[in-house]
Design brief:
Elements lengths: L16 H18 L5 H11 L4 E7 L1 E14 L1 E9 L4 E6 L6 E2 L4 E5 L2 H29 L5 H26 L2 E3 L4 E6 L6 E2 L4 E18 L11 E6 L7 E8 L9 E9 L9 E18 L11 E6 L2 E6 L1 E6 L2 E6 L6 E5 L10 E3 L5 E2 L10
Parallel strand pairs: 1-20, 1-21
Antiparallel strand pairs: 1-19, 2-14, 3-10, 4-6, 4-9, 5-8, 6-7, 8-10, 10-13, 11-12, 11-14, 12-13, 14-18, 15-16, 17-18
Length: 378
Amino acid sequence: MRDATPAMSPRSGRFGPVARTGFLALVMALAACKGGKPDPGKDGADAADKGPEAVPVEVATAARRSIAASYMGTAPLEARAESQVVAKTSGLALRVFVDVGQQVRAGQSLVQIDRDRAALQVAQADAQVRKLEANYRRASQLVEQKMVSVNDVDQLRYDLENARASLRLARLEQSYGTVTAPISGVVAARNIKPGNLVQINTPIFTIVDTSRLEATLNAPEREIETLKAGQTVQLSVDALPGKTFEGRIDRVAPVVDSGSGTFRVTCTFEGGGMLQPGMFGRIRIEYDQRANALVIPRTALLEDGNAPAVYTIKAGKAARTALKLGYVDGGWVEVREGLGEGDAVVIAGKAALREGSAVQVLGAKAAAAPATPRASAQ
C-alpha cells in the first residue's frame, strides 16, 4: 500500500509548504531574540565622526554710517521763575480777581483787602501835615521880624518833615490793600477766597513763569571740555511719547563739585506749549559727529567685564576679537581698531560660544548697519 503523504523531490531543491512555513518562523524567532538592538560599536563610531554640534548664531556686518558723540542725562523741567505771593498787611479779603490757570502780568491786581483803618490813618497824617505847614509858614514870617527864634523855626521844619514821612508811610500801608502780581506768568495755586482773613506774610497765590523752562543736569567732570553754552539739546518727556523738543545749553557752571565730581549744566526750552513744569525730561546733547564711521550694533559687544571684544566668524568658527571703540550713538558703537568694513560679528547666540566654537549662521543674509545718514535724535 502506497504512502499518501507527498514526498519532497530531491531533484527540485524546493521545500514543501509545511517546511517553508517552519523556516520563516525560525527566522522571526531569531530576530526577536536579538531585540532589534543596534550595533553599539558602529553607532559610537558615527557619533565620534560627527563631532560637536554647531552653535546657531545671528550676525551683522560692520558698515559705515554717520554717528554722533553725545551726552545723555535726565532732569525735571522747572519754570524760569516762580513766586509765592504774600500779603504785606492783614485784613479781610473783599475781592479775588484771578483763579488757577489764569495768565497774569506783573503789577496786575490779584486781591483787594479791606483798608478802611489805613484810610483813616492817611487822613489823620494828612491833617497833621497841613497843620505843621501852616505853622511853619507863619513862623518863617515872624522870624524876619525877630518875634520867633531861629531854633523854633528849625524845630517846626523838622516836625513838618517827620509828618510828611508819616503821611507817606500811611499811604504806603493803604496801598498794601491791593495785592498785585510780582511777575508775569500763570496762577498755579490760590489759597484765598473772598471773605477770608488774610494774614501778613502768608502765601495766598503761586505764580510760575512758563515762557521758558529749564532743566539742570549734573554732568560728570570728564564732560567739562565738551559741554558748552549754546550747544543744541534734544528733549523727550515720558508724558509725551514720540515727541522731541529742541533747546540750548544756557549756562555751564565753571567749577566742579568736589563731593560728587559733577558740574551743573542748565538747558532752556521754549514754554507756553505742551511742555509743563514738573515733567521728567530725558536730555541728549550732541557735541561731535563723524560722517563716515565704521560701526557695529552694540548688541555684538561681549559683556564679560574684560576689554571691549566681539566674536567674529573665521572658517566657520567663532574667534574672539578685541576692539578699540569710539563714539556710542544709540544702538550703534564706533569701531576704531579691530575690524574692517564687511566683517561679520555675532549679535545673537554669543553666550553659548567659546573660542573656536563651530557656528551655524542663521538666515541667508547677515544684518548690516544702515549706510544712510542718521536722523535727528529722538
